[in-house]
Amino acid sequence: MAPAGAKRNILERLDAGEIVIGDGGFVFALEKRGYVKAGPWTPEAAAEHPEAVRQLHREFLRAGSNVMQTFTFYASDDKLENRGNAQRFTGTQINEAACDLAREVANEGDAMVAGGVSQTPSYLSCKCEDEVKSIFKRQLDVFVKKNVDFMIAEYFEHVEEAEWAVQVLKTSGKPVCASLCIGPDGDLNGVSPGDCAVRLVKAGANIVGINCHFDPMTCVKTVKMMKEGVERAGLKAHYMVQPLAFHTPDCNCQGFIDLPEFPFGLEPRILTRWDMHKYAREAFNVGIRFIGGCCGFEPYHIRAVAEELATERGYLPAASEKHGNWGAGLEMHTKPWVRARARRDYWEKLKPASGRPKCPSMSTPDSWGVTKGHADLMQHKEATSQEELKPLFEKAKASH
Amino acid sequence: MAPAGAKRNILERLDAGEIVIGDGGFVFALEKRGYVKAGPWTPEAAAEHPEAVRQLHREFLRAGSNVMQTFTFYASDDKLENRGNAQRFTGTQINEAACDLAREVANEGDAMVAGGVSQTPSYLSCKCEDEVKSIFKRQLDVFVKKNVDFMIAEYFEHVEEAEWAVQVLKTSGKPVCASLCIGPDGDLNGVSPGDCAVRLVKAGANIVGINCHFDPMTCVKTVKMMKEGVERAGLKAHYMVQPLAFHTPDCNCQGFIDLPEFPFGLEPRILTRWDMHKYAREAFNVGIRFIGGCCGFEPYHIRAVAEELATERGYLPAASEKHGNWGAGLEMHTKPWVRARARRDYWEKLKPASGRPKCPSMSTPDSWGVTKGHADLMQHKEATSQEELKPLFEKAKASH
Amino acid sequence: MAPAGAKRNILERLDAGEIVIGDGGFVFALEKRGYVKAGPWTPEAAAEHPEAVRQLHREFLRAGSNVMQTFTFYASDDKLENRGNAQRFTGTQINEAACDLAREVANEGDAMVAGGVSQTPSYLSCKCEDEVKSIFKRQLDVFVKKNVDFMIAEYFEHVEEAEWAVQVLKTSGKPVCASLCIGPDGDLNGVSPGDCAVRLVKAGANIVGINCHFDPMTCVKTVKMMKEGVERAGLKAHYMVQPLAFHTPDCNCQGFIDLPEFPFGLEPRILTRWDMHKYAREAFNVGIRFIGGCCGFEPYHIRAVAEELATERGYLPAASEKHGNWGAGLEMHTKPWVRARARRDYWEKLKPASGRPKCPSMSTPDSWGVTKGHADLMQHKEATSQEELKPLFEKAKASH
Amino acid sequence: MAPAGAKRNILERLDAGEIVIGDGGFVFALEKRGYVKAGPWTPEAAAEHPEAVRQLHREFLRAGSNVMQTFTFYASDDKLENRGNAQRFTGTQINEAACDLAREVANEGDAMVAGGVSQTPSYLSCKCEDEVKSIFKRQLDVFVKKNVDFMIAEYFEHVEEAEWAVQVLKTSGKPVCASLCIGPDGDLNGVSPGDCAVRLVKAGANIVGINCHFDPMTCVKTVKMMKEGVERAGLKAHYMVQPLAFHTPDCNCQGFIDLPEFPFGLEPRILTRWDMHKYAREAFNVGIRFIGGCCGFEPYHIRAVAEELATERGYLPAASEKHGNWGAGLEMHTKPWVRARARRDYWEKLKPASGRPKCPSMSTPDSWGVTKGHADLMQHKEATSQEELKPLFEKAKASH
């Protein structure tokens, strides 16, 4: 592991041409471990089960992550409340616990703490700019108090809301990342990736990019379009990417949420560590230097990214002491035909079988998500209760 | 969770008709978390990183496991040594640490501690019965000292060696499980599952069954054959099953180790939680009452087993507080078409796509594993060093 | 082509160790050409459109067939009638026309004419032996009058009915083949392939084997079981196989009729010519010497069989003048990367893609066919009208 | 069948809003029947085996075709010669025989005869406009002498050469179709489908469109782009489409020739009749009125097109007397669960399995075809001999 202590700012690192490796998504990983509920996806585990959150931070740190994102996704009081959980902890308690856990583990290695905000129900309910910004401001106050190292505005489907977030986060004086969850077709209003990036840089973002919703190669392609837009506009920025660890060639513009397998049947789509090598190399080649993951990433996925870029970074991650390069550990295997797999060529060429002969390769995204006539409904997709949605459902049905 | 404190013996539970839920395999889960090296697969993490092992125990406990298997797989000094690691801990230290961790977490809930032994290199090197038994005896000494609740002899490919293990373990006076890693074709000498089971019961095993190497449905089918053999012989036993969490319809008799995807490309084969429901129900219907998992199982897989059998057991596991029944948590989702998936029917019928259109459904097991002419070599597949195998390799090559 | 004129009996050929190549199934091939109606599958085209039937005979002759089967499948008057066509031709006219067409083309090369009978609705309606035999006798009269070279009793699902057919056909003094449409599980009463074969040989069949319902490798495997049965019983026979040209790994005991794709969605399952090479070689190795095809076979499939066995037969078929060995014709292609495919190795290794990413590899046979409770109904599956079946349908539905 | 006799010009029909149904490709269909050699793909069968060519014409006529294309593909003397066959017939004999066969069968129903020219080796060898045009002129002379009803310039990869062909064909005074074998990416020089269409219409083509190289939906999409181009330019034309009967989602710009399965492993990609219904409807909806097929089409595929458009055309084709609408013929089937498939809904929803669990859904086009460095070679891909290509091969290899 790189020497700790020499903790430099993310911008100092990126300006120096270094690679910053992100972590993976916590909600999916902790759902599989039994600490997050799929559906609400709220982060109360930070307070309820700190040992589980701390352990996951540690695993990503060992795997090579330079960034510990605070586990504060969806952690505003109103969000926590409307998710129906009678909470044993307040939003503030959860947010502060999450900051403390991230800092504790970051201090164990060469990692920075990043606070985060993401898209709000208020924006989709057509609340005004001031109101949305005040939500971001309240979240920022905690991160400033806990003195995180930098801020990430991530998981935005509308560039306008992301711009507002950036403007708020800039007031902290900390470096600001802006990451959208869009694909090559642009944001949900049809603003192209290139135009989105230009607007975010103009709003003050130091680092722009993409996270969640699509597979690694699609996300890298979209960041490439952002980069080209920024360069065409004569601007400067750094770039980040934190994709899914699921293959999603059959997604529509809404991403993996519209796949029929979301969220409980995605297993056959999980990327192998070798897929991650290709991703890391492609991201690097495109010029992205903040490279991490989102939903589906497990520690070994991040380790694969770190191993692919070990020469460029100059060191291997701690967890590589438990991993032979390109399967070299198999040289220890007792069966000779397994030992024969201890080589890069074998794993690069393998097209892994699914063992599921009754399953197709691609599924059709849900008709709900793609039906144009349901636009009204989709505009309101973040409405806070099913009650509120009822009239929209009626309308949608009537339009058939 | 069921009330702790009322800790009863595994045989008391099974005799009373209760379901005992096992845990999942530690080597695969901890490999992904960065604490076990694929190839050697040794358990030094018990001493090196106890927090990671403790956390995994806790997750399985929360998921519903009644059994904490000590993380002592391949933990004899000779095995640890020949795996080529300059170890910072002795075998005894690792074994004792593993027992302490299992006991610590077992005491947090309604779980028993199980010590384990598995097949030895000595048996395959044609060592005599006394020598092989003395190895099991040395391992047993630690488990007796640490006072585990019962013993499991597991992962045997030859029933004869398993019989020897059972005979040794019986001397402890503790209940003994015997679990083979074979499929419906029987052990590697061609002894049928039914005959294997009869021999194990006669050797003194209280519980017999299958673990590892094959997917759940194949393992359940094999245990059914064991049960039929035992009943035909007029004997009595309890039954256990701890399969892989990978779909392996294309395996030959050696199991998933011969699949080209083993061990680093198995992702598309991972079972969903809904596949686990089917497995748990089928195992229960067949009359198996000790139901757990092996390689590939994550805590959410065990939780699915516990949820499927919640009515029969009379309670849900702790981790179900973070999981709606059959996807019910999605009722909280913000997108209506995702909320529409909050029902059993949807998930039971889903045939999940792989998102990998260039990959087949089934692969062909490695030619090494299936070539009859390599029988010599395969008999020696557990030889302790590559040096020893060299002459066999030459012979195998010459026979082409 | 082998010299015509030297027309020897099929038994003389087989006794001399020669390979006899059959033709392909006419109903499927002519359905695609627009002359047979799927559902009734009746052969009125022999009289209505003789040019189409003659042309198909010629194509199989050119492809290497030594046998011209008369196109008389389902050609009894009662069958023709209940299929609901107001026929412009009597059954006798159709049968005689079919015999004449087969003879005309057989005389153009080294081919014999085979008349055929197949399973009857009467047998399934529980008519007595005498009645069923009298049906076969009426059909035989036409074949004797037209002096076909030998007889084939084919497409029987119950060995008992096939025995009756053989007994009738033997009275003609012509060589008799008996071919069942069963798989390795045996006939619909559970009689094993080996036992079926013994009974057929004892009834007088000179050649026994399998046709239709399953893919080539399954059929070859079943004939192998028949051969082993005959040899165990100390009997002697020749063996034949005429399988489907569709891959059917997912069939139940009723064969491809129960696949959801039958009969209008079978395209993705069609064997390539290279699959046929493997089939021909395997059939030969097993000891089968009358090797042909059934539904799905097109002339190029038979040509592939003849090309695989060209060395053993001593000559190539006429149509090979339009086919390079193992793709050698591609050496003439204008694109160099296509020319690079003019070699055996390329085609043997190719795993052809389906171009259908939303389709699975295997489908589940229809629930109708596999539901045990529908046994009553299935026993009556050849009942002559839907009217008669009504009460059975009601019963079947009520049993759900 | 529509009344014969009332033979109107193709333009009269299209101007009246009628649908004209084309035939299928002869080289692939006759290759399977044993009369055309894959590789050279030359049409000597018109003279050698007229009965086979006549029969295929008849089958397409029965299936609903209004166009009998003369079987004259690649039938210039130079082409026939360099394909290496010592021909028993001159090019003129073959061409004249083909015209006579097409006319003979066209006269049996409501069909027109179309003569055809296609891209020349000379164009790719950089011969001048005059030389290329003189080749087309010589071919046209035969068609004029035989008085075909209209002309088709088809299978062009470069719009410039197609323009030259149209200019020559226009001199005959007959209606002229121009059909390119390109996809949505445009011709091999990158001219977009819209621009190609405009140039062809300006050159004098009455009907423009696409044939071969891509699957039906891709071809329809490309014709739609052509139509939009023509309309944007304020021009008028009719539109035609004659696609492959193979699913080709994984093609690059060179079409199916670059798929590894071309030409002997394409079976799993063959369209079902139900796929053809979707194709015919989509083509009609887009405004295409000359709808036919190319390689892979069998008569039943054309019949499916005619059945889908039966209401619009006002009649069913002759071969529909042997085909129930949407599987209605299955109502006659003896097995009740097969009868249950006699409905549109069943076949429309079916996702047919391939029965090939070791094959992927998509393959990767040959590296030859996609390697940018091979551009030199590809420009010369139609060079007339391997000798000429040698230096290019050397160059290509050296560039690796």
Notes on the protein architecture:
The first copy, chain A, has helices at 10-15, 26-33, 45-48, 50-63, 77-82, 91-106, 121-124, 129-145, 159-170, 193-203, 216-232, 273-286, 299-308, 310-313, 336-339, 344-349, 367-370, 375-379, 386-398, and strands at 20-21, 67-69, 112-117, 150-156, 176-180, 207-211, 238-242, 290-291. With 400 residues, chain A is α/β, with parallel strands linked by helices. The first copy, chain A, has one domain (10-395): Alpha-Beta Barrel (TIM Barrel). In chain A, helix 8 crosses helix 9 (159-170), helix 10 (193-203) crosses helix 11 and helix 11 runs parallel beside helix 12 (273-286). Chains A, B, C, D: Pathway: Amino-acid biosynthesis; L-methionine biosynthesis via de novo pathway; L-methionine from L-homocysteine (BhmT route): step 1/1. Chains A, B, C, D: Zn(2+) binds at residues 212, 294-295. Chains A, B, C, D: Its EC number is 2.1.1.5.
